[in-house]
TrEMBL record:
<dbReference type="InterPro" id="IPR005490">
    <property type="entry name" value="LD_TPept_cat_dom"/>
</dbReference>
<comment type="similarity">
    <text>Belongs to the YkuD family.</text>
</comment>
<keyword id="KW-0808">Transferase</keyword>
<feature type="active site" description="Proton donor/acceptor">
    <location>
        <position position="268"/>
    </location>
</feature>
<dbReference type="InterPro" id="IPR038063">
    <property type="entry name" value="Transpep_catalytic_dom"/>
</dbReference>
<keyword id="KW-0961">Cell wall biogenesis/degradation</keyword>
<dbReference type="GO" id="GO:0009252">
    <property type="term" value="P:peptidoglycan biosynthetic process"/>
</dbReference>
<comment type="pathway">
    <text>Cell wall biogenesis; peptidoglycan biosynthesis.</text>
</comment>
<dbReference type="Pfam" id="PF03734">
    <property type="entry name" value="YkuD"/>
</dbReference>
<keyword id="KW-0573">Peptidoglycan synthesis</keyword>
<protein>
    <recommendedName>
        <fullName>L,D-TPase catalytic domain-containing protein</fullName>
    </recommendedName>
</protein>
<feature type="active site" description="Nucleophile">
    <location>
        <position position="285"/>
    </location>
</feature>
<dbReference type="GO" id="GO:0016740">
    <property type="term" value="F:transferase activity"/>
</dbReference>
<dbReference type="GO" id="GO:0004180">
    <property type="term" value="F:carboxypeptidase activity"/>
</dbReference>
<dbReference type="GO" id="GO:0008360">
    <property type="term" value="P:regulation of cell shape"/>
</dbReference>
<keyword id="KW-0133">Cell shape</keyword>
<dbReference type="InterPro" id="IPR032710">
    <property type="entry name" value="NTF2-like_dom_sf"/>
</dbReference>
Length: 436
């Protein structure tokens, strides 16, 4: 049986995948040829997806299958079996995958190719004869989705590695999320006694025109450090957003400082007719498959969960951020000490001249606010609790810091978020606000 299905190239680059030489496909019965042609036609136009809408029973079946095994894992297994020449096993598993996930277009495309390979050699992945322009565009998107999924399998982060942006995560923050746009991948971390641990990663779609959002309606996904602000139930939303949504705090203080506009950037699901979307398909949001989103919806806490969206994540060992954390904490401790000691002039030295706080508070207005804070402290030591620090670097270097500011002897205090900018060897605050 032909193995030319693997003309998508990247598949054979997976470790341990043997590629057999192509050989002529044996002749099969007319029924097989018709079945192959039918399957191939079914996956080409996205207008049909699986039949315009997925029945309620099929949706329940999808959810049930998602609990037992990830659809992507099973698709990669089909690829792997095909690469090893075990095409009958691959075909059987592809049939089961499509049955369990009837709206998984990429799985349907693989099934169609496996059926077609029974009748003739394949020229490429998604080998559809003379597709219409619309279908051709869909095929190109599916091929790119396949490449991204395979690359994520082949280029997995090292065991125990974390994104360098996660300099410090508060013990009270149970989860953190990182998105690598270059890999079309979302990574979910659990924060426990031993620190951050990668517990899941999912294929993700970003903006139609890519990343680096600048203004309203540019169909790009923003890059930076964000926080989930709330949770939206599917009942509140159109079918486009799938199982629900987690809005992000775009534009953040750094975005506003740079004059960026727009709003409504969410992490959300997919329409009922699509298991997943093309790598670049949204109006700027990050979209993942509904079963994956449901896990996140049931896991993370709004307001405390950070989401870092990067063009390409930089992975380090947990020890790799210790030096940076210690160095920055020295700066933060110096700021806290100046405030505890009531030294207004020294305290003001930690703020940029063009500081702009909440409600466009200027450095002059900040001076009055800080004076009130110092009077309220009455010389008590300030304790910073539940501290998180997330590092962001592009054309400049920023540290996003969140903590509870608790005077000695008090049980609680305001939760504040600061944005620090590094200029040379000096860190200064360009935004500070109370968030809780």
């Amino acid at each position: 049986m032909a193995t030319a299905l693997l003309a998508i190239g990247a598949l054979t680059a997976l470790p341990g995948w043997a590629r057999e030489p192509q050989r002529a496909a044996p002749k099969k019965a007319v029924h097989t040829q018709r079945t192959a042609a039918k399957a191939t036609r079914a996956v080409a136009p996205r207008r049909a997806a699986v039949a315009a809408a997925v029945p309620v029973a099929a949706k329940a079946q999808v959810a049930q299958a998602a609990r037992s095994d990830q659809a992507e894992t099973r698709l990669i297994r089909v690829y792997r079996l095909t690469a090893q020449g075990r095409t009958e096993e691959a075909l059987a598993q592809a049939h089961t995958l499509v049955r369990d996930f009837p709206n998984f277009q990429l799985a349907q495309l693989a099934l169609g190719d496996l059926l077609t390979a029974r009748t003739r050699p394949l020229a490429q992945f998604g080998d559809v004869a003379a597709p219409q322009p619309e279908a051709g565009a869909v095929l190109a998107e599916l091929r790119q989705e396949s490449r991204q999924r395979v690359a994520a399998e082949r280029l997995r982060p090292a065991a125990g590695a974390i994104p360098a942006a996660f300099v410090e995560i508060s013990d009270r923050t149970r989860h953190a999320i990182a998105v690598d746009a270059s890999r079309s991948r979302l990574y979910l971390f659990e924060n426990g006694k031993q620190g951050l641990r990668l517990v899941a990663d999912y294929y993700a779609s970003v903006g139609k025109l890519g990343i680096e959002k600048e203004f309203e309606g540019d169909q790009r996904t923003p890059l930076g450090v964000y926080y989930i602000t709330s949770r939206l139930d599917a009942k509140q939303l159109a079918d486009l957003y799938g199982s629900g949504a987690l809005p992000l705090n775009y534009p953040n203080a750094l975005d506003l400082r740079r004059g960026k506009t727009g709003s409504g950037i969410w992490l959300h699901g997919t329409p009922s007719t699509q298991f997943s979307r093309a790598p670049q398909a949204t109006d700027g949001c990050v979209a993942i498959a509904n079963p994956d989103l449901e896990r996140i919806l049931n896991t993370v806490e709004p307001r405390s969960t950070p989401v870092v969206i990067s063009s390409q994540l930089h992975w380090v060992t947990p020890q790799g951020v210790v030096g940076e954390r210690q160095a920055f904490n020295q700066v933060l401790d110096a700021w806290s000490k100046a405030k505890s000691e009531g030294d207004l002039q020294r305290l003001l030295g930690f703020y940029t001249y063009d500081f702009q706080g909440m409600r466009s508070q200027s450095i002059t207005e900040l001076r009055a606010t800080l004076q009130e804070d110092l009077q309220a402290l009455r010389g008590r030591t300030l304790v910073l609790k539940d501290k998180s620090a997330l590092h962001w670097q592009d054309s400049s270097e920023t540290m996003v810091v969140t903590f509870a500011e608790v005077p000695a002897g008090a049980r609680s205090g305001p939760v504040k978020r600061q944005y620090w900018r590094r200029q040379g060897q000096r860190w200064q605050i360009f935004f500070e606000g109370v968030i809780g």
